[in-house]
Write a structure and sequence with these properties.
5 strands, Helix Hairpins, 2 domains, minor pseudopilin epsh fold, mainly alpha, 3-stranded antiparallel beta sheet, two-stranded antiparallel sheet, 256 residues, 46% helix
Protein backbone atom coordinates (compact mmCIF):
# COMPACT_ATOMS: atom_id res chain seq x y z
CA UNK A 1 0.00 0.00 0.00
CA UNK A 2 1.51 3.34 -1.05
CA UNK A 3 2.00 6.07 1.55
CA UNK A 4 0.52 9.58 1.32
CA UNK A 5 3.63 11.04 -0.28
CA UNK A 6 3.76 8.40 -3.01
CA UNK A 7 0.02 8.60 -3.63
CA UNK A 8 -0.06 12.37 -4.06
CA UNK A 9 3.07 12.32 -6.16
CA UNK A 10 1.65 9.66 -8.47
CA UNK A 11 -1.64 11.50 -8.81
CA UNK A 12 -0.01 14.79 -9.70
CA UNK A 13 2.24 13.15 -12.25
CA UNK A 14 -0.66 11.41 -13.92
CA UNK A 15 -2.68 14.62 -14.06
CA UNK A 16 0.28 16.64 -15.31
CA UNK A 17 1.07 14.14 -18.05
CA UNK A 18 -2.52 14.09 -19.28
CA UNK A 19 -2.99 17.84 -19.12
CA UNK A 20 0.31 19.04 -20.50
CA UNK A 21 1.22 16.66 -23.27
CA UNK A 22 2.45 17.74 -25.77
CA UNK A 23 3.28 21.10 -24.17
CA UNK A 24 6.27 19.91 -22.14
CA UNK A 25 8.51 22.91 -22.36
CA UNK A 26 8.14 26.49 -21.16
CA UNK A 27 11.21 28.62 -21.83
CA UNK A 28 12.18 32.08 -20.63
CA UNK A 29 15.37 34.07 -20.24
CA UNK A 30 15.94 32.94 -16.66
CA UNK A 31 15.33 29.23 -16.83
CA UNK A 32 13.88 26.36 -18.81
CA UNK A 33 11.05 24.74 -16.91
CA UNK A 34 10.62 21.12 -17.95
CA UNK A 35 7.47 19.34 -16.92
CA UNK A 36 8.82 16.21 -15.30
CA UNK A 37 8.72 14.18 -12.09
CA UNK A 38 10.80 16.70 -10.18
CA UNK A 39 8.59 19.64 -11.18
CA UNK A 40 5.40 17.95 -9.96
CA UNK A 41 6.44 16.52 -6.62
CA UNK A 42 4.09 15.64 -3.75
CA UNK A 43 2.18 18.36 -1.92
CA UNK A 44 4.12 18.86 1.29
CA UNK A 45 2.15 19.28 4.49
CA UNK A 46 2.64 22.62 6.16
CA UNK A 47 1.12 25.92 7.24
CA UNK A 48 0.51 27.19 3.72
CA UNK A 49 -2.25 25.86 1.48
CA UNK A 50 -3.33 26.27 -2.11
CA UNK A 51 -6.39 28.54 -2.22
CA UNK A 52 -9.35 27.61 -4.38
CA UNK A 53 -9.97 29.66 -7.49
CA UNK A 54 -12.96 31.98 -6.99
CA UNK A 55 -14.33 30.89 -10.39
CA UNK A 56 -14.21 27.98 -12.83
CA UNK A 57 -11.15 27.34 -15.01
CA UNK A 58 -13.02 28.46 -18.14
CA UNK A 59 -14.59 31.55 -16.55
CA UNK A 60 -12.02 33.99 -17.96
CA UNK A 61 -12.33 32.86 -21.57
CA UNK A 62 -11.74 34.06 -24.21
CA UNK A 63 -9.09 36.21 -22.52
CA UNK A 64 -7.39 33.39 -20.60
CA UNK A 65 -8.14 29.81 -21.64
CA UNK A 66 -9.26 27.04 -19.31
CA UNK A 67 -6.23 24.81 -19.87
CA UNK A 68 -3.84 27.60 -18.95
CA UNK A 69 -5.82 28.36 -15.80
CA UNK A 70 -5.89 24.72 -14.75
CA UNK A 71 -2.15 24.29 -15.22
CA UNK A 72 -1.28 27.68 -13.77
CA UNK A 73 -3.30 27.19 -10.59
CA UNK A 74 -3.23 23.44 -10.06
CA UNK A 75 0.39 22.82 -11.06
CA UNK A 76 2.51 25.97 -10.88
CA UNK A 77 0.89 27.60 -7.86
CA UNK A 78 0.55 24.24 -6.13
CA UNK A 79 4.27 23.67 -6.60
CA UNK A 80 5.13 27.00 -4.98
CA UNK A 81 3.02 26.07 -1.96
CA UNK A 82 4.61 22.64 -1.69
CA UNK A 83 8.16 23.96 -1.95
CA UNK A 84 7.44 26.80 0.49
CA UNK A 85 6.20 24.35 3.12
CA UNK A 86 9.37 22.32 2.70
CA UNK A 87 11.56 25.42 2.87
CA UNK A 88 10.08 26.79 6.11
CA UNK A 89 9.77 23.47 7.90
CA UNK A 90 12.56 24.30 10.36
CA UNK A 91 12.36 28.10 10.23
CA UNK A 92 10.53 30.78 12.19
CA UNK A 93 8.65 31.64 9.00
CA UNK A 94 6.52 28.56 9.61
CA UNK A 95 4.43 30.41 12.19
CA UNK A 96 3.99 33.61 10.14
CA UNK A 97 1.35 34.71 7.67
CA UNK A 98 2.52 34.70 4.06
CA UNK A 99 2.56 38.51 3.88
CA UNK A 100 4.87 38.58 6.91
CA UNK A 101 7.12 35.94 5.40
CA UNK A 102 7.48 37.84 2.16
CA UNK A 103 8.16 41.14 3.90
CA UNK A 104 10.82 39.65 6.18
CA UNK A 105 12.61 37.34 3.73
CA UNK A 106 16.26 38.08 2.94
CA UNK A 107 17.68 38.05 -0.60
CA UNK A 108 19.89 35.02 0.10
CA UNK A 109 16.97 32.92 1.39
CA UNK A 110 16.31 31.78 -2.13
CA UNK A 111 13.80 29.00 -1.59
CA UNK A 112 11.61 31.03 0.73
CA UNK A 113 11.96 34.11 -1.48
CA UNK A 114 11.02 32.33 -4.71
CA UNK A 115 8.27 30.10 -3.39
CA UNK A 116 6.88 32.52 -0.83
CA UNK A 117 6.67 35.19 -3.50
CA UNK A 118 5.11 32.73 -5.91
CA UNK A 119 2.46 31.79 -3.37
CA UNK A 120 1.53 35.35 -2.40
CA UNK A 121 1.68 36.70 -5.96
CA UNK A 122 -0.68 34.07 -7.28
CA UNK A 123 -3.00 34.16 -4.26
CA UNK A 124 -3.53 37.86 -4.93
CA UNK A 125 -3.62 37.48 -8.72
CA UNK A 126 -6.56 35.06 -8.81
CA UNK A 127 -8.67 37.53 -6.82
CA UNK A 128 -7.65 40.45 -9.04
CA UNK A 129 -9.38 38.74 -11.96
CA UNK A 130 -13.09 38.14 -12.53
CA UNK A 131 -15.31 36.67 -15.26
CA UNK A 132 -17.01 38.93 -17.77
CA UNK A 133 -16.03 42.30 -19.12
CA UNK A 134 -14.84 44.41 -16.20
CA UNK A 135 -15.43 47.73 -17.95
CA UNK A 136 -13.90 50.94 -16.68
CA UNK A 137 -12.36 51.20 -13.25
CA UNK A 138 -14.74 51.97 -10.41
CA UNK A 139 -14.56 53.37 -6.92
CA UNK A 140 -11.91 55.46 -5.25
CA UNK A 141 -9.04 53.91 -7.19
CA UNK A 142 -10.52 55.06 -10.50
CA UNK A 143 -10.53 58.66 -9.38
CA UNK A 144 -6.99 58.39 -8.06
CA UNK A 145 -5.63 56.83 -11.25
CA UNK A 146 -7.10 59.59 -13.37
CA UNK A 147 -5.66 62.23 -11.06
CA UNK A 148 -2.23 60.61 -10.73
CA UNK A 149 -1.64 59.65 -14.36
CA UNK A 150 -3.79 62.20 -16.19
CA UNK A 151 -6.24 59.64 -17.57
CA UNK A 152 -7.01 55.96 -17.47
CA UNK A 153 -5.51 55.56 -20.93
CA UNK A 154 -2.22 57.06 -19.75
CA UNK A 155 -2.19 54.77 -16.73
CA UNK A 156 -2.80 51.73 -18.95
CA UNK A 157 -0.03 52.83 -21.31
CA UNK A 158 2.52 53.09 -18.48
CA UNK A 159 1.43 49.83 -16.90
CA UNK A 160 1.58 48.07 -20.28
CA UNK A 161 5.10 49.39 -20.79
CA UNK A 162 6.20 47.98 -17.42
CA UNK A 163 4.67 44.59 -18.26
CA UNK A 164 6.13 44.50 -21.77
CA UNK A 165 9.59 45.73 -20.78
CA UNK A 166 10.04 43.17 -17.98
CA UNK A 167 12.75 41.00 -19.56
CA UNK A 168 12.10 37.30 -19.12
CA UNK A 169 9.84 36.26 -16.27
CA UNK A 170 8.25 38.51 -13.70
CA UNK A 171 5.35 40.74 -12.78
CA UNK A 172 4.05 44.25 -13.43
CA UNK A 173 2.52 46.03 -10.44
CA UNK A 174 0.57 49.03 -9.28
CA UNK A 175 1.54 49.60 -5.65
CA UNK A 176 0.83 51.92 -2.76
CA UNK A 177 4.20 53.13 -1.48
CA UNK A 178 4.90 53.95 2.19
CA UNK A 179 4.05 57.61 1.52
CA UNK A 180 0.60 56.64 0.26
CA UNK A 181 1.38 57.31 -3.39
CA UNK A 182 0.49 55.16 -6.38
CA UNK A 183 3.49 53.81 -8.29
CA UNK A 184 3.87 51.48 -11.28
CA UNK A 185 6.75 49.05 -10.97
CA UNK A 186 7.80 45.54 -11.94
CA UNK A 187 9.67 42.69 -10.30
CA UNK A 188 11.71 39.78 -11.60
CA UNK A 189 10.71 36.15 -11.23
CA UNK A 190 8.42 35.77 -8.18
CA UNK A 191 9.63 38.78 -6.22
CA UNK A 192 6.82 40.79 -4.62
CA UNK A 193 6.83 44.54 -3.85
CA UNK A 194 6.38 43.66 -0.16
CA UNK A 195 9.89 42.15 -0.13
CA UNK A 196 11.40 45.08 1.73
CA UNK A 197 14.87 43.54 1.86
CA UNK A 198 14.85 42.68 -1.85
CA UNK A 199 13.16 45.40 -3.92
CA UNK A 200 14.57 48.53 -2.27
CA UNK A 201 12.86 51.72 -3.44
CA UNK A 202 10.12 49.71 -5.15
CA UNK A 203 8.83 48.52 -1.76
CA UNK A 204 5.10 48.91 -1.33
CA UNK A 205 1.75 47.19 -1.05
CA UNK A 206 0.64 45.58 -4.34
CA UNK A 207 -2.90 46.49 -5.34
CA UNK A 208 -2.90 45.35 -8.99
CA UNK A 209 -0.52 42.84 -10.56
CA UNK A 210 -0.04 41.03 -13.85
CA UNK A 211 1.87 37.77 -14.19
CA UNK A 212 4.08 37.90 -17.30
CA UNK A 213 5.75 34.53 -16.88
CA UNK A 214 5.30 32.58 -20.10
CA UNK A 215 3.38 29.84 -18.32
CA UNK A 216 0.64 32.45 -17.68
CA UNK A 217 -0.11 32.96 -21.37
CA UNK A 218 1.97 30.84 -23.74
CA UNK A 219 -0.61 28.18 -24.66
CA UNK A 220 -2.97 30.83 -26.05
CA UNK A 221 -0.72 33.76 -26.98
CA UNK A 222 2.68 32.10 -27.62
CA UNK A 223 5.20 34.95 -27.97
CA UNK A 224 2.53 37.66 -28.22
CA UNK A 225 2.86 39.05 -24.70
CA UNK A 226 1.40 42.48 -25.63
CA UNK A 227 -1.79 40.75 -26.79
CA UNK A 228 -2.08 38.95 -23.45
CA UNK A 229 -1.47 42.24 -21.62
CA UNK A 230 -4.23 43.87 -23.64
CA UNK A 231 -6.65 41.06 -22.76
CA UNK A 232 -5.90 41.53 -19.06
CA UNK A 233 -7.80 44.83 -18.96
CA UNK A 234 -11.05 43.02 -19.78
CA UNK A 235 -11.03 40.82 -16.67
CA UNK A 236 -9.75 43.03 -13.84
CA UNK A 237 -11.71 42.84 -10.61
CA UNK A 238 -11.73 46.52 -9.70
CA UNK A 239 -13.59 45.84 -6.46
CA UNK A 240 -10.59 43.79 -5.33
CA UNK A 241 -8.19 46.53 -6.45
CA UNK A 242 -10.10 49.01 -4.31
CA UNK A 243 -9.91 46.63 -1.33
CA UNK A 244 -6.17 46.24 -1.86
CA UNK A 245 -5.76 50.01 -2.01
CA UNK A 246 -7.53 50.41 1.32
CA UNK A 247 -5.40 47.63 2.82
CA UNK A 248 -2.21 49.27 1.57
CA UNK A 249 -3.15 52.67 2.93
CA UNK A 250 -4.04 51.13 6.28
CA UNK A 251 -0.73 49.27 6.39
CA UNK A 252 1.22 52.51 6.01
CA UNK A 253 -1.02 54.44 8.41
CA UNK A 254 -2.57 56.66 5.72
CA UNK A 255 -6.13 57.87 5.44
CA UNK A 256 -8.13 56.61 2.46
Amino acid sequence: MMDKRTFLRTGLLATATAALNPFKLFANSNQTEIINEETFDFLADGPFTLPDLPYQFNALEPHIDATTMEIHHGKHHAKYVSELNLAVEKMAYKSMKIEQVVEAVKPAETKVRNNGGGHLNHSMFWKMLRPGESGMETGRIGQLLNTKFGSMDKFKEQFNTAATARFGSGWAWLIVNPQGGLVITSTANQDNPLMKNVVGKDYGYPILGLDVWEHAYYLKYQNRRPEYIGAFWNIINWDEVNKNYEAGMKKFGKRV
